[in-house]
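REVIEWER CHECKLIST
Item 1: Sequence provided? yes
Item 2: Single chain? yes
Item 3: Sequence as submitted:
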Amino acid sequence: MAMAAHPSLIIPAIPAEKVGFKSTNSSADEEAPKDKMVVSCTSHRGSTAGVLLLPEFSNKHIVLGGRYEYEDSIDAMIGMGAFGIVFKGEDTVTNASVAIKRIPKLNVKENELKMIRSLKSDYLVGVLDICRMDDVTCCLVMELCDSDLDQHMRNVSTQGRLSPSNFRTLLDNIARGYKALYEMKIVHRDIKPQNILVSYRNHSPSQIAVARITDFGIARTLDDEQGAELCNVAGTFYYMAPEVGANLLKTCQYDFKVDMWSIGCLLYQCVAGEVPFEEGYLCRLFLYTACANYEAYDLPEIPSTVDPEVVKIIHSLLAIDPSFRCNPTQFYNRATNWSQSIH
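Item 4: Structure as written out by the authors:
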């Protein structure tokens, strides 16, 4: 991929195990960059969900480890989230296009970087390399996909709904990708359409060839020996499990079941064209969970045109009581059995 001539920054590659992290409260390290641009974000139900602040770009040509190159410019930016910015770049050794995610090291721990790099599955976005830019910033070099599920549903699908064949691929691939996370005791905590990347068959947007889970910025591991559970608030509002939202009111422990809820919300959106719960009702779900008032909850209605087995899968994922919610093994078995049965 040809790059325009710009002033260059040469950044050395540092092995993942050698990336150092500071535990500091100094204002110099924590000070956010001066923001120059504001982008409004709109929710799937049309209300304003918030704003993204775009940082100042240097417009320089960046070289990471003498191998990976990208432009620090808004034109090269292909994604942005709470934990970093993603640029389209190039691996100069293989001449392959890559995605380069630049993140503040304050937002990730060394053991989490090792965990991210160890993930191996055809249905998880692979981290090819980790480079350190400076004392406060590191870059994840990742596989580049054609799009994400959010953009696909907005721009390609009919009324925000996936075609039957694309839904079958998505359900099967998410189940297989999450199985890999579950086997490594990883709770993702932020599964949503923006964090499902898709590659198209022959690069044609009409047919999804493979879907992969990505963005492990707030993923955490569970230690079975210590019986550890998570209890801090993390995730994206529309896909947040009730027991996570209930932590806004009191401390609740949670585990892999929170990802099952998020997957249920995502799958519902794929077949219905909208998220299953609007803002006001989500707040009620948090209250129901904080008070263990599960009887007050009604499962969301799913269009009658949806396959009955898919309805059962989605409803099993959206059980408000985590003890009755589908677990990762059950989800994998049901999803893969269904997708294989209709091929």
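Item 5: Key structural point noted by reviewer: The longest helix spans residues 164-183.
Item 6: Recommendation: ____
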